[in-house]
Amino acid sequence: MSTLLLQFQPAYLSFGPGFAYKKSDNLKFNLSPAAARFVFVKNDSLATTYGLDQGKNSRFEFGASFDAYYKKQIMENVTFENILKLYSNYLDKPKNIDIDYTATLAMKVNKWISVNAGVQLIYDDNTKLPKIENGVQIGCKSDLQVKQILGAGITYKF
Questions:
Q1: Res 47: pLDDT
Q2: pLDDT tens sequence across 9-60
Q3: More exposed terminus of the chain, fewer Cβ within 10 Å: N or C?
Q4: Contact 48/55 with Cβ under 8 angstroms?
């Protein structure tokens, strides 16, 4: 597991009983009012950045989680996929909701080429990001994390 943790920092493991609804493969959600979540950070220098106590590599949380998935075909060979994950930690500031949203636009150009573009937005008040002004770090605070995704692929079937 330590090799896996080197690549995923932080790594999240969550589970809990709940209620699932699945209208189709394109629309489903899961609500768990009693979900355990573990946060793992192998790198000691990053641990406090993700809300772990100094010298610790993991944190236990207990709260509620909501996961939703929606995929829509916009036109032939073009789909729009949405994934939303919300988590409220009952043990520490339950009104602060952790948000992880991913939107992906996937396009099949022809039988060999596909392209996708997307964005991932993450907000977790435990994650403290460095704030820099004029090239100098002036502190750390919680903020929205944004990741842009662009991919192109070539498919060849044997």
A1: 66
A2: 788 899 999 999 999 999 999 999 999 999 888 877 676 777 777 778 888 9
A3: C
A4: no
Could you tell me the pTM of the whole model?
A: 0.82
Which residue, chain included where needed, has tokens 């990001």? 129
Measured in whole angstroms, how far is the alpha carbon of residue 83 from the centre of its chain? 9
For residue 78, pLDDT over 80 is answered with yes
One-character DSSP codes across 92-158: S-TTSEEEEEEEEEEEE-SSSEEEEEEEEEEE-TT--EEEEETTEEEEEE---EEEEEEEEEE----
- 86/6 Cα distance (integer angstroms): 25
SS3 state of residue 78: strand
